[in-house]
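Sync notes, pocket subgroup
Present: LS, DG
LS reminded everyone that the earlier model was apo-only. Rerun requested with beta-D-galactopyranose included. Inputs:
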Amino acid sequence: MKRTLGTCYYPEHWPEEIWEADARRMKDTGLTWVRIGEFAWSRLEPTQGDLKFDWLDRAIETLGQAGLKVVLGTPTATPPRWMIDKHPDMLAVDADGNPRKFGSRRHYCFSHEGYKAESDRIVKLTAERYGKNPYVAAWQTDNEYGCHDTTISYSDAAHTAFCLWLEKRYGTIEALNRSWGNVFWSMDYNSFDEIDLPNLTVTEPNPSHTLAFRRFSSDQVAVFNKRQVDIIRAYSDAPVSHNYMGRITDFDHFKVGDDLDIATWDSYPLGFLEDRVGASAEHQKTYARQGDPDFQAFHHDLYRSVGKGRWWVMEQQPGPVNWAPYNPAPLSGMMRLWAWEAYAHGAEAVCYFRWRQAPFAQEQMHAGMLRPDNADAPALIEARQVADELRDAPEVSAPRAPVALIFDYDADFAWATQPHGAGLSYFQLVFDAYKALRKLGFSVDILRPGTRDFSGYKIVAAPGMIYMPNDLKNALAEAEAEVVLGPRTAARNADMVIPVPLPPDMPGLDVTVSRVESLRSDMPLPLKGGGTITGYREELEGSAETLLELEDGQAAAVSSGNLTYVGGWGDDITWMRVFSQISNRVGLSTLDLQDGVRCRDTDALRIWTNYGATPAETPAGRIEAAGVLFEKI
Ligand code: GAL
């Protein structure tokens, strides 16, 4: 597979006279792709019906003539100001009941029928006009669904749509009352239209109600996206993509991805480090200029399985950004490393955001590949190096992994609905397991929760899947792989009610979670032999064999046949102990990688990366600080 590079460009930000020189310079840098158009609605339609696509025609022509391939974005993340007068109630409403305002972006509610019709209209105009344009080689729908907390809206439009969604799901109000346990606190309803959105209640709403609303809100994103895709496909054969974000889990990306050809994501390693990785202050300091060594990799592996396997980095951090609590510059070499790391995980393309730093508006402190004065910025120099290397480098073939981890957005909604303890989140739990696997040297595939065929994997882990359908339980119990479950596996039924028999009720595993507790972060429970259970703990009953034991003698992890159950939230050492014991059973050899050093296997190469600020030793030899090492396997 030929790996490529690209950038994100805003021709509407710059005088037309410089477009051609920009395009030539992109090409000379070794770029293939240029994404444009995703925020340009006010320049395409300055007032309603006054269509001005001529400039976009010329921009596409100029870029295409220079030999670049265009990714054309639909502009629906930025509805223009006039539209708010036309549809004042299209704005999303926050949990306090306040409409969000015009003046930035993503200010629409996914449920508003009037806005959906506007979206259909502008997408149709764009797709009709450019569907057969030879330079438009891919599409992007909207921009970063869910970013800036925009999946969930408590608007009237959302309320109307939610009642219909509930009726479709439950059929009768009696069934809904029964499934949710609405006898509790006299919450019974007599009809679907009596059900309100679960905000502004006196104390917490019924978790079944909240979870249903989270699922509904997620479905609204998928519906909105599919409408755009269907319109684009009526006019174009070019692949359609969407750019997802890091640790945005409030809509089911697998459902959105099913309608797309390419999953892409926007990777800002330093921006994410402070508030999305969930790392200690010390770790943040160590990696302030490099990013977390596993966070990008996790998303690469996740987005490879969102959709049909084709995936890109649509936006790659190019230097300091503007939006994190602190915005340091990357260590020299990191912008090259991030690109190679993405290719190692199977990315077809890596596009740096953005071409030239904008001296105006919200992102004036966000670096680009060029400085505002047109001089090369460090990102351009490192991108050029990657382009040169790609010319001579061995083909980076398909990634392969012996270990799989299931990621389930629905479980994330459920944990967020009922975390049971401060700071407990499903994403963090799965990410902790992932980090341990990577530290042991494993390449990991992330699987969707609908997976039933686990053949080819030696280990499959599904921590925290709070609702687990019976056919998945059976498939895991029958898998040839070793399977790692818990905590909270199958702890609720599909409607967020505790099932009886008590969880996990797994065929072939005699263990019952008899009691659960959440723990302050300063009361970890030590394990015999090292490691702790922290934050959340389950007491286990049953005859399964003990794998890890707490210092007080109670079981913390148990095994029977191919199934292992971890009864609590393990720290890094605990997860590594679980996975290395299981690896031994199946004859998989493990490494104990130095902090910051990670590897990823493709068919022919093991690609090593060093997120450390000093050189490190790997089994394949020495690796420079912020360096990449290619090992033939
Ligand atoms: C992304 C977004 C871009 C730009 C970038 C800045 O989230 O898609 O439009 O805002 O962040 O880092």
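DG: The longest strand covers residues 532-541.
LS: The pocket of beta-D-galactopyranose is lined by residues 143-144, 147, 266, 268, 315, 321, 353, 363, 366 (CB under 6 Å).
Action: DG to write up.
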